[in-house]
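Researcher: I've got a protein sequence and the SMILES for magnesium ion. Could you write out the 3D structure of the bound complex as structure tokens? I'd like something to compare against our soaking experiments later this week.
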Amino acid sequence: MTQPADTAPETISGGHLVAKALKAEGIDVIFTLCGGHIIDIYDGCVDEGIEVVDVRHEQVAAHAADGYARITGKPGCAVVTAGPGTTDAVTGVANAFRAESPMLLIGGQGALSQHKMGSLQDLPHVDMMTPITKFAATVPSTERVADIVSMAFRECYHGAPGPSFLEIPRDVLDASVPISKARVPEAGRYRASVRQAGDPEAVERLADLLAHAEKPCVLLGSQVWTTRGTDDAIDFVRALNVPAYMNGSARGTLPPGDPHHFQLSRRYAFTNADLIIIVGTPFDFRMGYGKRLSPSATVVQIDLDYRTVGKNRDIDLGIVGDAGLILAAATQAASGRVENGATRRKEWLEELRAVETAAYEKRLPRQLSGAQPIDPYRLVHEINEFLTEDTIYIGDGGDIVTFSGQVVQPKSPGHWMDPGPLGTLGVGVAFAMAAKYAKPDKEVLCLFGDGAFSLTGWDFETMVRFNLPFIGVIGNNSSMNQIRYGQAAKYGENRGRVGNTLGDVRYDEFARMLGGHGEEVRDPADIRPALERARESGKPALINVWVDPDVYAPGTMNQTMYK
Ligand SMILES: Cc1ncc(C[n+]2csc(CCOP(=O)(O)OP(=O)(O)O)c2C)c(N)n1
Ligand SMILES: [Mg+2]
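Model: Sure. Here is the predicted complex with magnesium ion in place.
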């Protein structure tokens, strides 16, 4: 029996409930590649004013959601279809998992009514996603759609942030239910503040350690940016006169040239310091699993995740919580003391500055090299000189990005993006997309290896379609050089060329074909003018820079990443 129209309850479909829940979280864009299983979400986005950015590969959608989270501080969202759409996005979710980036991937699924009957694109998505997410679930009914989306966001922020996954069966998504039966959590009312202050007694102990330290140093890790603890970190290093090193997303916390900004003397500092404070970064391969810290130093570790503190290496003091809050509390606790140790450390800072300057001067001739083919050091030097305070820098590649890690210094906080510890090639175009979308007033520059670019480069077309100008630079050595080095070293030059050779591809022509700006550079003197012209073009741009294929980064030659 049908009800007369004027008494019929107001109904809402699953896709529209998804869009309402995204809106409640403050999300204004989804990154997606279409499929019949998910179209009702698009229709909901139209109603809620959420933009749909459609990409050409689901990996890019997931990386863009990760990038959006890093740039905005809000979770990112990617929406992909069932089966291959979801498997294509796995790499992006995995990257966000290792990088502690909060994002939600929504995947389609066959109808519940066809569960396990062999429906189109059916796969056990939740089983696949469980090990690489903080939360993975199936939405069981239309009434619960918005509720479970809000649950997934809550789970993204448990401890160190990370990705969540939801699959929504097609009949659940397409069905309409009375609005009164659906739980629709309201913006700002379904989760708590995630800022966690450190144990006050532990903070007092940290202040004590600082008061007595002669040679302290601090490593500001990615969580300093994740928790937006930049100002607290700056206050801390200045008030207590502590030399600071930065990694991952925390690069740029202090500007280059700041008296407490150090980069090239890290190993020396870790070997000679008496107090080492590690903030918001794990003892993983990037830290030599903690083995490279002086065995006699007092080691303090601060992290959002209880499981990270003390993992792989013993520590003297562990504090769980928000980097910014804890550093601010430590500054305050130490400032109350008659002697906080700050003035005593003048010589230590001078000692490190001398090591830093010597390392810089040793490398400078390479950075200014006029050699052809171009020395990669010259390319990354030119990029570093070109960056402004408003340029977001992205690195996506092997050896060429290893070079840039030593030379490129972002000029502002939150202006450095790298894949993180998963080391995923192919994040570049996606991160550029997210960064330019979220911050249209910023300039975005991405340095690619030619291998890395070719993994996801077709989404350059998406940048053109959505008018997202950025400056892409390809360090083109026609090789997967970072891998080639290890092969040549192990098997000899003759056998070292297996599986790592790329064509001499004109990526500048590829850019032009897709409606962007493109230039080729062979002479190092032409790098700067080409960068300027790309900036002026106002288009997505690729500068194809031919770099010397037989020059390797020191990190690659030491094979540091495997040690
Ligand atoms: C998705 C993915 N596949 C493979 C690798 C292994 N890998 C690390 S570096 C590298 C070579 C990258 O080549 P390119 O981007 O051209 O940079 P180059 O080392 O030549 O400067 C490869 C294949 C990876 N990290 N990620
Ligand atoms: Mg290469």
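Model: Residues 449-451, 477, 479-481 surround magnesium ion (ligand 2) (CB under 6 Å). The chain has a mean pLDDT of 96.
Researcher: Great, I'll pass this along to the crystallography team.
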